[in-house]
């Protein structure tokens, strides 16, 4: 099995969401929170990118402003609050994390960590925001978070995501899985300007692999039984798959209209009255078009101006293809069977694939079938 650490986390949190996202592949639009986080992550990567010139605070704030999309938010007030929060995050971060003060080894680096079990190799994939080397024998994995809540230190010590990061870095640099090298994994909570860290040992790599194998086993059992039960958790209120979840079924039930007989009779009466009114207006519109057309023919005009705007008459031609001529052109090319019954859309598609001389022959099979004159109205002063 090849699976990302985020998919493992999703399964542990809610098996049904795992099925909807990973097996059924139901696509959902990214939330405004996710897009906000993506922009912040991109800017921090730019800030720490190795180079001769270090971006200034003004540089990163200008980039944030230029790439800000206020249309993601419900109203101007919400957009303004989110924008102000983004500015604050970046200013606070820059004040505490001047790029030259860190020895950055990698940024947004992808990893693939093999986990073997019972003769089968599973591959865990993911991407790490940043890897630093603070001292000679210490390596630090940093993951940025734009969430509002900070977990407890105990939760960070047991966090599977951080454990998998450790596994991924140890696979990329095998020397980290031996000797006295230490690996610190950290979650940087940008909205609070705080970093929670935990040290990982070589022995814990084995525990991480066992945890992964157990989770993969649970996934395979769910696949075999075709049972992926929803699991209520603190993130349910922000889940993009609520519409498909039995726990939220009532929230998305469409309102049904219930009428008695008198209500129905009243609606039918109103419908009939409106239909009569529309028919009368359509009839009058035809009479007006007829009179305007006669005047245009008499005066040799195609556009008439009034106090409220102007009306233009246009000739619309419709064409049809001569089946026999078209067959003679397309059958030798093996294209006739793709049409059989002439379909303008299909014909247009295959015509674009033909050489210019053949396209010309196809066009010669096109004959006018109907011509009509239509009126268009442009409102405004003449």
Rg on CA atoms, Å: 33 Å
Average pLDDT rating: 86
Instruction: Report, as a whole number of angstroms, the end-to-end distance.
Output: 71 Å
CATH architecture of the largest domain: Alpha-Beta Complex
Brief summary of the model shown:
The chain is α+β, with helices and mostly antiparallel strands.
Verbal overview:
The protein is α+β, with helices and mostly antiparallel strands. The chain folds into 2 domains: 2-249, Lambda Exonuclease, Chain A, CATH 3.90.320; 302-382, no CATH class. The chain is built from 12 helices and 9 strands. The strands form 2 sheets. Strands 1, 2, 3, 4, 5 and 6 form a 6-stranded mixed sheet that branches. A 3-stranded antiparallel sheet has the order 7-8-9. Strand 5 (182-189) and strand 6 (194-200) form a beta hairpin. Helix 1 (5-13) packs across helix 2, helix 4 (57-66) runs antiparallel to helix 5 (76-96) and helix 10 packs antiparallel against helix 12.
Itemize the secondary structure elements and their pairings:
Elements: E1 2-4, H1 5-13, H2 15-23, H3 32-48, H4 57-66, H5 76-96, E2 104-117, E3 120-135, E4 138-145, H6 153-157, H7 160-172, E5 182-189, E6 194-200, H8 202-225, H9 261-299, E7 303-306, E8 309-321, H10 323-330, H11 344-351, H12 356-364, E9 366-379
Parallel strand pairs: 1-3, 4-5
Antiparallel strand pairs: 2-3, 3-4, 5-6, 7-8, 8-9
């Amino acid at each position: 099995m090849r699976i990302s650490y985020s998919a493992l986390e999703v399964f542990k949190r809610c098996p049904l969401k795992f099925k909807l996202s990973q097996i059924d592949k139901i696509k959902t639009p990214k939330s405004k929170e996710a897009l906000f986080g993506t922009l912040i992550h991109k800017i921090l990567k730019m800030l720490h990118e190795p180079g001769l010139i270090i971006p200034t605070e003004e540089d990163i704030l200008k980039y944030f402003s230029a790439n800000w999309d206020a249309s993601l938010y419900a109203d101007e007030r919400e957009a303004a609050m989110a924008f102000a929060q983004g500015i604050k995050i970046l200013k606070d971060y820059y004040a505490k994390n001047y790029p030259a003060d860190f020895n950055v080894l990698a940024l947004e680096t992808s990893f693939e960590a093999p986990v073997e079990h019972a003769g089968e190799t599973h591959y865990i994939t993911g991407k790490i925001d940043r890897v630093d080397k603070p001292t000679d024998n210490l390596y630090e994995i940093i993951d940025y978070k734009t969430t509002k809540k900070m977990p407890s230190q105990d939760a960070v010590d047991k966090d599977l995501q951080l454990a998998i990061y450790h596994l991924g870095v140890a696979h990329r640099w095998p020397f980290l899985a031996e000797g006295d090298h230490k690996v610190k994994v950290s979650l940087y909570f940008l909205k609070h300007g705080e970093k929670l860290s935990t040290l990982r040992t070589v022995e814990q790599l084995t525990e991480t692999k066992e945890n992964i194998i157990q989770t993969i086993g649970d996934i395979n059992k769910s696949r075999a039984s075709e049972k992926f039960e929803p699991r209520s958790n603190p993130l349910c209120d922000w889940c993009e798959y609520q519409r498909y979840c039995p726990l939220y079924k009532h929230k998305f039930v469409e309102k049904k209209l219930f009428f008695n007989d008198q209500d129905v009779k009243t609606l039918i009466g109103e419908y009939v009255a409106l239909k009569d009114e529309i028919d009368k207006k359509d009839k009058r519109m035809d009479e007006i078009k007829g009179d305007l057309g006669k005047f245009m023919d008499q005066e040799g005009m195609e556009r008439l101006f009034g106090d409220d705007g102007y009306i233009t008459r246009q000739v619309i031609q419709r064409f049809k293809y001569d089946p026999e001529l078209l067959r003679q052109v397309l059958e030798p090319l093996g294209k006739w069977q793709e049409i059989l019954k002439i379909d303008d859309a299909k014909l247009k598609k295959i015509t674009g694939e033909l050489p210019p001389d053949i396209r010309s022959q196809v066009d010669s099979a096109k004959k006018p079938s109907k011509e009509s004159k239509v009126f268009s109205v442009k409102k405004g002063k003449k």
